[in-house]
Structure formats: structure tokens, C-alpha cells
Automatic annotation (TrEMBL):
The keyword Zinc does not apply. It comes from Gimesia maris. Keywords: Cell membrane, Glycosyltransferase, Membrane, Transferase, Transmembrane, Transmembrane helix. It is found in: Cell membrane. The keyword Transmembrane applies. This is Uncharacterized protein. Its main location: membrane.
Length: 730
């Protein structure tokens, strides 16, 4: 009963039982198998065998790792003739699981064995062994945290579903790692003492599970959680067997020891019950009054209601729409094709590629209250798409992807300091919440407030608030302010902080960059000319990166600063002036753009001359369109041919410039004014497919089939339209 109670109040039990996962049923099935075996291990009855067979066949379908329980039971049964009847259930389970694995292989699903062999081939024996040791260490950390919840120097998974900070157990984390090891050893001792009652099955399953997890690339706490009830089940037997070796001659000493242990257990249980209450209280608040909860409680990202966003998409979008989201639950309620993406680690250039490859129509992400989880400037500065927020509720934002037909930026949805203001307000309201502390620190760094960032994190550290992410941001803030020695020290401190494994590579990179900067600081370059060329190349690379990622306002400030810096090489000056002209064009400031282009031409810029020619062509096409619309220009075949050629040339240039939406808009206008032109329609169809305008592309395709039915390219376009019209099956 005590063990059952400990498992019941464990916050991980509450956490996993409320998710759509198989951990809790799998744990119950595993314990039931061990219980059935323990009733009568030798010469089992018919009823026992039937129940055992049903349970052990069902177990691997809950979780594949259940196969290891089958193997352990088979090994245990085969060495004693009185246990051979158990092999009936084991054989049936192996046969069923084998057929299921064959079925998965036939449809191309990757299995555990293929993944393990693939890693062995790619890493080699030595590399695989090193990674196995690293994984075992991580899984032991997870197992320790699940045996002793709220362990200090840890960040439990369930802490993200609590509004305020959790109460940690007192003392250093290493003490609890040692206690967890002692509990596991006592449990193993209990298994050995109960080896005739299924203890050897449990021990074999424990060893095989850890061995298998050491080869599995993914490391999640839920993988080790089903081992907890197995360990707890044999803990009393191990304790009794271990206690029998010690005899206390004085009853008073024995009573004192029992009393001390009881107080420790009660304190431990009270901490867990408090955490359970926090979990339940926060979730009840969210369910009872969601509007007030999201607007006033400033919950973390784990409270975001992804399924509600999916329901909105289901009701407000076309059935063939496709979505890119950072949470798979959205697709279930949206009933749409979905691709998973984490927008906080994807550049604008990469995001464009993903959208184009998947033909997405919507992005689903956490909203602005969660800070740096999306490149919010793209809402206004994206040159390829207009990313329009159409849903913003319960922590989730749905963004509709539409063509940027003007090819310019806007000032509508994004403010440079908006995320920082939200983070400040949230932190001032709940300064004790760790996720809001990290959120404000991240926003300060992203906004370039490095001095304030340093002061803020140092203040937190003085209050004994230490976190690896805060140390990481502090180290980079020192690098930005050229305090390289302090940066190295902070990164080294972070390497010894709990949770550093996930960002260890980034911490080592920070140390390397700081050390390199220190070396460059004390070394002078004798060849000043080479140094200048390298500096210009670096500036040009940065400017090009800003342009590719649509950071238009940041690029403008960078270019103006670079041009005002002093003497520049003519070629480099022309390139910067041309880039600044492009910035003025996408900001709809044509006169300033022409001025910069003329400066670039003076410095010998060939690209600037080409842009000036295209601007003249653009003006000519605009005049022709106006004349056609007002019937001042006769719609002769000759005039139409000249206009068509100008339109096609201009549309292709828009695409090369990086504003394909403007090409789409031009082609749509031209198709209205100069209809039934196959060459124009083919280019229009290409742009419509680029933007996943399925209905419009289908109409254009039908028009082309009437004009040029023999064109072979239309079959490929028809196939693509048909693919985009396909609906997912749920």
C-alpha cells in the first residue's frame, strides 16, 4: 500500500496519465504480468497461463520495449522444466510481435534494429560505445528524478505545467543521485531474494531496458518512467532482506531510526502532494476561465491550446490547405496535412524553402507573449509573403500565408520593442517565475540591450537564481560588449551547471569565439590592405545575409553606418549603394533608390545599371496598362506583342530581385488586359503554383488546355495541382 501511495502521489504519474500516451497502461500491464507469475511460478494453472498469455501478447502493442519483458520471461522460464508452460504465452507473443514487425517493415517504417545498426555504421564501435555511456548517464538522471521528484538542480518536465515555481527537496542534487542509486540497489537485492517469484524477470527486464535505451537515439523522461513501478515493487522485499542483516539491541534506537525515516518520508510525500496540487490547480484555472487565465496569469508555452487553433483552421480554411506548426496536435483537429517546424531555430530563408516545398497555407506558432519563438519582424518585412495573423487566442497564433503582391514592406503587425515590452510587463507582474526571467533575458539580448542584460542576470545570480540558459545569455552579452575574459569564465561556469548537456556545443563554441577574439585583440595585422579587404568581405556577407533573411530595417541601418564609415573601395561602395537602393525600393521610396543607383553607377556598379533599366521598363509598362484601360492606346497585335514582351521580362526580373509576389500581381493584371496569351498564362500558372493558389492555378490550367492542349508541360502542372488538391485521411 505504501508503494502504491508513493506511485500515486508522484507528479510524473499525474503528468503522464493526463497525456495521450501509453505509459500508464504499459506500467499496469507489466505489473500484472509479474503478479500473475509470482502467484505460482512453478507448474502454473490454466487460468494463470491464459491471463499471462493475453497480457504478454498485448504488452508490446502498448510500447515496443515490452518485447524485452517477453525475452526476460522466456529466459527465466526456459532454465527450469516446471516453468516451461510459461513458454506458451512467450512463444505466442514473439510470433505476434514478429508478424507486426514484418508488417511495419513492408510499409517502410524504421525499426529499432535498423536505427541501432545505422548508428553503429555511422559512428563506429568506439563512437557508439561513447554515445551509449552518455545516454545511460542521461537516462539515470531521468530515473533518479522520477524516483525522487522535485530533486534539486533539475528541471522536471511537469514544472512547465505549473504557474509558479515548484518546491525542491533540500540539499545538493548529488545527494539525491546517490540516494536513487541506493534505492535501485536495494530493489535489485529484493529481486534477487524473490527470484522464484518473478524477481529474475524484473531484473532481466530492467537490465535489458537500460541496454536498449542506450542505443536509442532519442532521450525522453517518459522512456524510463515505466521502470519506476518495477523498482518500487521490489523495494520492500529488498529492504526487509537487507534489514535482516542488522539487529538493533536497543529498542529505543530502533524506534528513533523508524521515527526519523517516517518524518523524512512524510516530508517527501508532502512536497509531492503540494506539486500535485499546483498541477491540478493550474489546469483547473485554464479550463474554468481560459480568457482570464491567458490574459492575466501569463502562463508558459506548455499551456498553449493547440487543438483550439486546429479547430479554427478546420472551420475557416479550404479542405486542401496545408499547415506548418510546432506541435503535432494541431493537425489532428485541423484535419489538414501538416509539417512540423520549430520557428525559433529557422531563418527566414529556410522558412521560405519549407513553405515552398510543402506548399503551406498557414503557420501555427506560439503567440507574441512567448517571445523569441518566431521571427516576428517577418509579419511586416517579408518580401515574398504577407504573413497575416488571423487567429490569436489561448497562447497560439495562426498566420495565413499570402503573396506579397506589392513587393514592399509595411508597418502593420510588428513593433521592434513589442516583445520586450510584453516580457517586461510579465516579469514585473510575476518576478519569481523562472520562465519569465529567462524570457526577459532573451528579449533584452535579442534587442541589443547588452549592458542591461548583464545587470539583470547578475542581479538574479546575486539572489541565488542560477540557470544554464541565463549563464549562456550572460556569456554572449559579455562577448557583445567585448569583455572576453568574463565571457569565458561564464561559459565555463555554465558547463558545470545542471542542464548544460543540451547546449554544451553552443557553450564550447562561445568559449572558442571569445578566445579567438582575445587572440585577435592582442595580435596586430602587418598587412593593412589584406585586413581592409577581409573587413569589406565580412560587411558584404553580413549585408547579404540581412537581405536574404528579409531584415530590411536592420539592413538599412547597417548600410548607412557602413557608407558613413569612411573611404571605401569603388567596387565595394557600388555594391553597398545598390543594396541600399534595393532597400529604398522595397520601402516604396523610388526617388531615394534612384539616387543611390546613380551613385553606384558612378562607382562602376553593373547591377545598378540593370536595375535602372528595369525601373524604366516598369514605368513604361504602367503607362501602357493605363492607356489600355482608358482605351487611349489601340489594342493592336503589334502593341500587344510589345507589351507582352515587356511584361514577361519584368516579371522574370521581379523573381530574380526577390519579389515574386509582385511578378504574380503584374501577370494577373496583364492577363486581364491582354487575355489568352499562352506564354503569359504559363508564367502565371508557375507563380500560382509557387504560392499554392490551387483554385486559381486550376482555372489557369483549364484555360491553357483550351489554347495549347498539346503542350507536354501542362501534364506536369496538372499532376501538381491534383497533388495539392488531395485531402488527408484521419
Amino acid at each position: 500500500m505504501i508503494i502504491t501511495g508513493l506511485l500515486a502521489v508522484n507528479p510524473y504519474t499525474l503528468f503522464f496519465s493526463t497525456l495521450v500516451m501509453s505509459e500508464i497502461p504499459f506500467m499496469a500491464c507489466s505489473l500484472a504480468i509479474l503478479y500473475v507469475v509470482a502467484l505460482r511460478p512453478d507448474h502454473p494453472g490454466r487460468g494463470q497461463l491464459i491471463i499471462f498469455t493475453i497480457l504478454i501478447i498485448f504488452l508490446p502493442f502498448l510500447r515496443t520495449i515490452g518485447i524485452l519483458m517477453i525475452l526476460s520471461a522466456g529466459i527465466w522460464a526456459v532454465f527450469r522444466k516446471a516453468r516451461w508452460p510459461w513458454l506458451i504465452g512467450v512463444s505466442g507473443s514473439i510470433l505476434t510481435s514478429g508478424l507486426w514487425m514484418v508488417r511495419n517493415a513492408s510499409i517502410g517504417k524504421s525499426g529499432y534494429t535498423s536505427i541501432a545498426l545505422g548508428e553503429l555504421q555511422s559512428q563506429g564501435i568506439a563512437g557508439t560505445l561513447i554515445r551509449m555511456i552518455q545516454r545511460i548517464t542521461s537516462h539515470y538522471d531521468h530515473l533518479s528524478q522520477q524516483l525522487l521528484p522535485n530533486m534539486p538542480e533539475s528541471q522536471p518536465r511537469y514544472s512547465a505545467l505549473i504557474l509558479d515555481n515548484i518546491s525542491y527537496l533540500p540539499g545538493p542534487g548529488r545527494l539525491y543521485l546517490f540516494l536513487a542509486a541506493m534505492l535501485i540497489l536495494i530493489s535489485i537485492y529484493g529481486m534477487l531474494n524473490c527470484r522464484r517469484q518473478g524477481g529474475m524477470i524484473a531484473l532481466g527486464y530492467l537490465v535489458l531496458s537500460l541496454a536498449a535505451l542506450s542505443l536509442w537515439p532519442w532521450m525522453q523522461p517518459r522512456f524510463t518512467f515505466p521502470l519506476i513501478p518495477i523498482i518500487l515493487a521490489y523495494l520492500p522485499a529488498g529492504y526487509i532482506a537487507f534489514a535482516n542483516h542488522f539487529q538493533f539491541s536497543r529498542p529505543l534506537l530502533r524506534m528513533a531510526l523508524v521515527g526519523a525515516c517516517s518524518v523524512i518520508v512524510l516530508y517527501f510525500v508532502s512536497i509531492q502532494i503540494k506539486t500535485d496540487y499546483q498541477l491540478i490547480h493550474a489546469n483547473l484555472k485554464m479550463l474554468s476561465d481560459p480568457r482570464h487565465f491567458y490574459s492575466h496569469q501569463m502562463p508558459g508555452s506548455s499551456f498553449s491550446h493547440w487543438t483550439a487553433a486546429g479547430q479554427w483552421i478546420n472551420q475557416n480554411s479550404e479542405a486542401h490547405s496545408r499547415i506548418i506548426a510546432r506541435q503535432s496536435a494541431t493537425a489532428t483537429t485541423a484535419q489538414r496535412y501538416q509539417k512540423l517546424a520549430f520557428f525559433d531555430v529557422i531563418s527566414a530563408e529556410k522558412l521560405h524553402q519549407i513553405i515552398q516545398q510543402f506548399h503551406a497555407n498557414y503557420l501555427v506558432t506560439l503567440n507574441k507573449n512567448h517571445g523569441l519563438i518566431f521571427s516576428w519582424y517577418l509579419l511586416d518585412e517579408d518580401l515574398v509573403y504577407h504573413l497575416n495573423p488571423v487567429y490569436d487566442e489561448q497562447g497560439v497564433m495562426v498566420i495565413k500565408i499570402e503573396p506579397n503582391r506589392s513587393g514592399t514592406i509595411r508597418e502593420k503587425y510588428y513593433s521592434a520593442d513589442e516583445s520586450l515590452i510584453l516580457a517586461r510587463n510579465a516579469y514585473e507582474k510575476f518576478p519569481h517565475r523562472s520562465y519569465l526571467q529567462s524570457g526577459l533575458a532573451g528579449e533584452l539580448f535579442n534587442s541589443g540591450h547588452y549592458e542591461e542584460e548583464i545587470e539583470f542576470i547578475r542581479k538574479l545570480q546575486q539572489n541565488n537564481i542560477r540557470d544554464v540558459n541565463l549563464s549562456f545569455l550572460l556569456g554572449w552579452s559579455y562577448i557583445k560588449t567585448k569583455q572576453y575574459e568574463k565571457a569565458i569564465h561564464e561559459f565555463e561556469v555554465a558547463l558545470s551547471t545542471p542542464g548544460q548537456k543540451l547546449i554544451r556545443a553552443n557553450l564550447l563554441q562561445g568559449i572558442h569565439i571569445a578566445q579567438q577574439a582575445l587572440a585577435d585583440k592582442y595580435n596586430t595585422d602587418p598587412n593593412q590592405s589584406d585586413s581592409t579587404n577581409q573587413s569589406e568581405e565580412k560587411k558584404l556577407k553580413s549585408a547579404t545575409q540581412y537581405w536574404n533573411n528579409c531584415q530590411i530595417n536592420k539592413l538599412e541601418r547597417y548600410l548607412i553606418k557602413s557608407l558613413e564609415a569612411g573611404e571605401l573601395q569603388p567596387e565595394f561602395h557600388a555594391t553597398l549603394c545598390t543594396l541600399l537602393a534595393k532597400v529604398h525600393l522595397v520601402k516604396n521610396n523610388k526617388s531615394a533608390a534612384v539616387e543611390q543607383l546613380n551613385l553606384a553607377v558612378t562607382s562602376g556598379g553593373s547591377e545598378a545599371s540593370e536595375i535602372l533599366k528595369m525601373l524604366e521598363r516598369e514605368e513604361r509598362v504602367e503607362i501602357l496598362f493605363k492607356n489600355i484601360q482608358t482605351n487611349h492606346e489601340v489594342k493592336s497585335e503589334h502593341n500587344s506583342a510589345d507589351t507582352l514582351q515587356d511584361v514577361l521580362t519584368l516579371a522574370e526580373w521581379y523573381q530574380e530581385f526577390g519579389v515574386p509576389g509582385k511578378a504574380l500581381d503584374l501577370l494577373e493584371q496583364a492577363n486581364t488586359l491582354i487575355p489568352n496569351q499562352p506564354e503569359l498564362l504559363k508564367l502565371l500558372l508557375q507563380q500560382q503554383l509557387f504560392y499554392s493558389l490551387v483554385t486559381e492555378a486550376d482555372a489557369t490550367l483549364k484555360q491553357l488546355n483550351k489554347l495549347i492542349p498539346e503542350d507536354s508541360q501542362l501534364k506536369e502542372a496538372a499532376r501538381e495541382v491534383e497533388e495539392l488538391q488531395q485531402l488527408p485521411r484521419f
